[in-house]
Design goal:
about 500 residues, alpha/beta, Adenoviral Proteinase, Chain, 2 domains, five-stranded mixed β-sheet, 18 helices, about 5% strand, elongated, disordered N terminus, deSUMOylase activity, protease
């Protein structure tokens, strides 16, 4: 059996012989075409050898090119049997000399067939394995059954990812709140073209006061704190619910505050107003203005009835003064009373608006807001149409008359003429946007809540109603116990109140 190189040489020899045979055939055909029809002339062998024609040169050049191409093909690939057969068929003529060449070609073909048979019998087969049919995944891809390559329409995050996402959203929300607060609380400044060298002469400075924003310090609608309420119940047992026996004074006082069917006394009103004043002293920014005053029920208790009649019975002097004044009125004006959380802020100088609970005929509580600059009194009533105009004017007459009198009395002697003794105007607001009570015992709670909402700059909510009154009372009691350490009715110093002027 011949090696691969010998087989390549044999093929090259065969191809060379074929090229020579084709060349001879072409030459003979060309020579026959040049002979005349009458007398065939035999070509001169010497001339053919010595003087080749142009056609012979072209044929030789073509044969050389064909030989070069066949040599390149023989080097690149193993000869095939089909190619040999096709080449045999391409031969136009067979002569006697080609018989030997055909026999050699047959021998070479048999040898090539034997070589291919031996290669097929070897254990290492060079044929590529059959390709398996691909199985499409459920999502329609050609990735097979590999679960890592299957696309899922919905992604279910893990618990750790959910916690991380919640933390990220919380930080984002807090950052948004901080930015909003910074934009609201930032100090406005004048542009360079608006700055005036004359202090007080620039009208633009008046519209940019650069005062801190006040109000909305806390939410009065928040539910009662459970810890505060639990401590109150622990220290004062039996104050919630019906009582089967008579309670002593502190427990009875708490019981009246938290029970919806009980009427609030003046000591309850004073305790809650003291808590508002305590909040104002610690956090004035919580309220809509820092020039507010929370007065207790002292004017309501001592400026009416006999005290008021005595004031009217005394005659004034030439300046309209010299009348008898109820005890404690001047201390209230100068901020020395009440004793609890003294503000020491003088009305009109440091205070513009005064909140106070006012009792009408010992039967009904209303809320008053006295505006000193406007010389006006606003009245909020939780029972629509309870007070007529004549009855209301008579009920708040002590406040409407004593306020201008105290302004002139407490002013400097040279400035008293600036304060007229004209009565303050008043406005009665009831019904509509003012919540109304549905019983006869919650007027005191409504009065206190009107003062709280208005001082915070809030509107009266619809949730201020009888259905929530039990929770509102419990919240007031728990806040009193926790914030101002209230353990019962506040004490009133009657000796100071009796020092009439």
């Amino acid at each position: 059996m011949k090696s691969g190189f010998e087989q390549s040489d044999s093929k090259f020899t065969i191809l060379t012989r074929k090229v020579i045979r084709i060349e001879k055939t072409v030459q003979s055909m060309q020579a026959a075409s040049r002979r005349p029809n009458t007398e065939p002339v035999e070509p001169d062998a010497d001339n053919e050898k010595n003087e080749p024609s142009v056609e012979d040169g072209r044929a030789e050049e073509k044969a050389a090119k064909d030989a070069a191409v066949s040599e390149k093909d023989a080097k690149d690939a193993t000869p095939r049997k089909d190619a040999t057969v096709s080449e045999k068929d391409a031969t136009p003529k067979k002569d006697e000399s080609s018989g030997e060449e055909e026999e050699e070609e047959a021998d070479i073909g048999e040898k090539i067939g034997d070589n291919s048979t031996e290669k097929a019998a070897t254990p290492k087969q060079r044929k590529a394995p059959a390709r398996k049919q691909q199985v499409l995944s459920p999502c329609g891809s050609d990735n097979g059954v590999d679960p890592d390559l299957v696309f899922v329409k919905e992604y279910t995050p893990t618990k750790a990812e959910e916690v991380e996402e919640a933390q990220r959203m919380a930080l984002k929300q807090q950052a948004t709140i901080d930015i909003a607060r910074a934009n609201v609380q930032r100090q406005r400044q004048l542009a360079a073209s608006q700055v005036s060298p004359f202090i007080g002469d620039s009208t633009v400075k008046g519209i940019i006061p650069n005062k801190p924003r006040l109000g909305y310090g806390y939410d009065p609608n928040e539910p009662v704190d459970k810890d505060r309420l639990a401590r109150l119940k622990k220290d004062f047992k039996g104050i919630f619910g019906p009582t089967k026996f008579k309670l002593h004074i502190p427990l009875m006082w708490w019981h009246e505050l938290v029970t919806q069917t009980e009427w609030l006394a003046d000591t309850h009103m004073d305790a809650v107003m003291n808590m508002f004043r305590h909040r104002m002293k610690l956090h004035p920014e919580w309220f809509r203005s820092d020039r507010l005053c929370f007065c207790d029920s002292t004017p309501s208790m001592l400026w009416q009835k006999d005290k008021w009649k005595r004031f009217l019975s005394t005659k004034p002097d030439g300046q309209g003064l010299g009348r008898w004044v109820p005890g404690g009125a001047t201390d209230l004006f100068e901020g020395k009373a009440p004793r609890f959380c003294q503000t020491l802020k003088k009305w009109e100088v440091d205070i513009d608006e005064i909140y106070m609970p006012w009792n009408v005929k010992d039967a009904h509580w209303v809320a008053l807001m006295v505006s000193i600059p406007k010389r006006h009194i606003t009245v909020w009533d939780s029972i629509p149409g309870c007070l007529s105009e004549r009855l209301l004017a008579k009920a708040i007459e002590p406040v409407a008359v004593l306020m201008p009198y105290l302004q002139r009395l407490m002013a400097d002697i040279g400035d008293r003429y600036k304060y007229p003794l004209d009565r303050y105007t008043h406005e009665y607001i009831s019904g509509g946007d003012v919540p109304a009570q549905d019983n006869s015992s919650d007027c005191g709670v409504y009065c206190l809540k009107f003062i709280e909402y208005h001082s915070l700059g809030r509107l009266f909510p619809k949730t201020l109603c009888g259905r929530n009154m039990k929770a509102i009372r419990a919240k007031l009691a728990a806040d009193l116990y926790h914030e101002i350490n209230c353990r019962g009715p506040p004490e009133r110093n009657w000796e100071d109140l009796d020092n009439d002027i």
